[in-house]
Each structure stands twice: as structure tokens, then as C-alpha cells.
Design brief:
Order of helices and strands: EHEHEEEHHEHEEEEEEEHHEEEEEH
Oligomer: single chain
Shape: globular
Helix content: 10-25%
Largest sheet: 8 strands, antiparallel
Number of helices: 8
Length: about 350
């Protein structure tokens, strides 16, 4: 693997040709593109120099994760108009084959704040799209995994995962996340080796050569506070919670419950306090983060970046420093394994 954090003006032969010089030539290049770039221009600049048998995936991102020389954090500064591109190159020596699937998402109603389709029908439509694809190599969990990237404004991440696993043809892990964008929440973009798209999920099915292994590390820099909320009224398609169970079991405003818990007198104060907290659900003893996208005081509800069901328990989590938590997790993950030579951070 090779990694470079480049400016938009560096997408030329002088910078890219050395980057693409990996063992056996590049098999796959993934690029994380700051949202102030023109994605079509970035894609065409890279494609012009990339060998024709290599695949290129690009996604817009709210913030790039890497550690340039001299930096002390994995989070690069997300300055306006930074026009940066983080490129990661994977060699043909490691990746023996790959296949790109592009799945259109039936989310026009969700984009307009409506729910016109049941979860069952939405998932079924995606299953039908998935079934049109035929992977040209055998999938084995030891050597095959999928990088899955989804339009970050589609509200469809959970539905996409349901569709893939209900399809039954993919006995492999899916790793990835949502394309990000500007904080105006208007657009996110994914380039699928041929065109820039919105309202899609793009899965790259990757088969590694027999001498290579991958591992999956999931960690979060949070700890439980001891407080949990039982969700009384939520909209999983539009991703908001309006009420939770009060101390006597009666439904109360989630905003009010949080203000009481964190001793806040206003939503403005609550927004400030929540910078030190987030939420999680529990699945088989593990915490899975559920992040707030905004507190909607006018409609008395809290919006999330992912869907939450009525009846779920939501745990209040206190944020911890990222670096020591990550160092500990990586140290434990690496025990008994050869040293990794690369990683993708989500």
C-alpha cells in the first residue's frame, strides 16, 4: 500500500506516477475527497494517469483521516476551501480480484422528509438490484470482504445492510461507511470507477491473494455514564426520537429528559454540553455509537445520523481522548499477529 495526502493541484503525473508504483501495479485506489473539490475533475485527473486495469473509488468526506508529517492527530484540519484528496493505493500483489457493485437507493421520499414506502418494500427493491450482480470469483470469508460506501444523506444505511444479508449470497463482512459532505447537508458524492453519483451504495468486493489476510478492528473512545433512555416514540426512516420513558414510565420529551439529566436550562446550553457526550445502543454486549445530527427545538425532537427504533435502549456515553483509547485497542488487536502493513480508517 501507499498513501498520499495531496492538494487538488497535485493531481499530475509528477505526483501520481510514483504513488502508483506498487508491487505488480495498482489494483485499487481509494480516494477521500474534501467537499470543496469538483469530484468529476478529481476523477478525470487521476484516471488519466492510473493504469487502465486498476479500479478507482472516490467519496466525498467531511474530514480526512490520516497523519501527515508533523501532525499530532489523525484528524486533519477541515479548513474551508482546503481542496485536499487523500489517496490510498493497494497493489496487485495483495489484491487478486475485485468487483464493483452500484446499487441505486429508493430514497426520494426520505430526501423530502416523507415516508411513502415500508421498510420491507424498500429493502426488497434493493435486494432486486443486488441480485442483478454476479460476482466473478468465489467468496470466502478468509480472503474476501466488501468495502461499502453509501450516500450519506440517503437515510438508507441500515436498509442497505438488510438487503445484502437477506440476499444470502454474501457470507462476508461489509466495512465502510457513509460519504460525507459540507455541513449544509445538501450533497454527498461517490465515484464508482466510471461516474460521479448520488443516491447510491457502492460495494467493492475484494479478494486478496492467498498469502495475505485482513483483520477488522472496531473501537470507540467512549465510556458509559450509567444513564440510559428507553425510546418511546421514534421515526426510524426519518431518524428522529421525540419521546422517551420518564422516571414513572410516562412518555416525556427527549429534549427535556436530556436537559434534566445534564442540568441544562436551554437547548443552546444542551448543545454545548452534548459536545462531551454521545449515545450508543447495545448489540450482544457491544456498544454501537448513535450520533446526534441535530437538536430540533421547533419540532421537539432529536435527529440522528442513523435509524433508531421505538423500544430500543439508548445509552448516554461520555467521550474519552481518542489517542490512548485507540493505542490500547490497536495493541490488543495486534497481539499474536504479524505487524500490519496498512490500514483503512473509518
Amino acid at each position: 500500500t501507499k498513501v498520499e495526502y495531496l492538494s487538488a493541484g497535485d493531481l499530475d503525473s509528477a505526483h501520481l506516477t510514483p504513488l502508483f508504483e506498487v508491487a505488480g501495479g495498482p489494483a485499487l485506489v481509494i480516494g477521500y475527497v474534501s467537499p470543496d473539490n469538483d469530484m468529476d475533475s478529481v476523477a478525470s485527473s487521476i484516471k488519466r494517469i492510473l493504469p487502465p486495469n486498476a479500479k478507482l473509488i472516490l467519496l466525498s468526506t467531511s474530514g480526512e483521516l490520516c497523519r501527515p508529517a508533523g501532525s499530532r492527530t489523525l484528524y486533519c484540519t477541515a479548513d474551508e476551501n482546503r481542496r485536499r484528496i487523500l489517496l490510498q493505493v493497494f497493489s496487485r500483489r495483495m489484491i487478486s480480484d475485485s468487483y464493483i457493485m452500484t446499487i441505486p437507493l429508493p430514497n426520494d421520499d426520505l430526501r423530502h422528509g416523507r415516508v411513502d414506502m415500508s421498510v420491507t418494500d424498500r429493502v426488497k427493491k434493493m435486494e432486486q438490484e443486488i441480485s442483478k450482480h454476479h460476482i466473478p470469483f468465489r467468496m470466502n470469508v478468509n480472503h474476501t470482504f466488501s468495502l461499502l460506501y453509501i450516500d450519506g444523506l440517503s437515510n438508507c444505511e441500515s436498509f442497505v445492510m438488510q438487503a445484502f444479508y437477506q440476499n444470502g449470497m454474501f457470507p462476508i463482512p461489509f466495512i465502510g461507511g457513509s460519504a460525507g459532505g459540507k455541513l449544509d447537508f445538501l450533497d454527498t458524492y461517490i465515484y464508482n470507477d466510471s461516474q460521479v453519483l448520488e443516491n447510491v451504495a457502492v460495494a467493492v468486493i475484494i479478494h486478496t491473494n492467498k498469502d495475505y489476510r485482513y483483520g477488522i478492528l472496531k473501537t470507540q473512545a467512549v465510556e458509559r455514564t450509567g444513564t440510559r433512555f428507553e425510546v418511546e416514540n421514534a421515526n426510524s426512516a426519518l431518524r428522529y426520537i421525540s419521546t422517551v420513558a420518564g422516571r414513572d414510565g410516562e412518555p416525556i420529551s427527549f429534549i427535556e429528559a436530556l436537559k434534566q439529566e445534564l442540568h441544562c436550562s436551554s437547548v443552546s446550553e444542551l448543545n454545548t454540553k452534548m459536545q462531551d457526550y454521545t449515545f450508543a445502543t447495545e448489540i450482544k454486549g457491544e456498544n454501537f455509537i448513535r450520533s446526534i445530527s441535530g437538536i430540533d427545538e421547533a419540532n421537539d425532537r432529536i435527529n440522528f445520523f442513523c435509524d433508531i427504533e421505538t423500544g430500543e435502549y439508548l445509552y448516554l456515553m461520555r467521550r474519552m481522548p481518542l489517542e490512548p483509547a485507540l493505542q490500547k485497542a490497536v495493541r490488543e488487536f495486534n497481539e499474536g499477529k504479524p505487524a500490519p502493513f496498512g490500514a483503512i480508517l473509518n
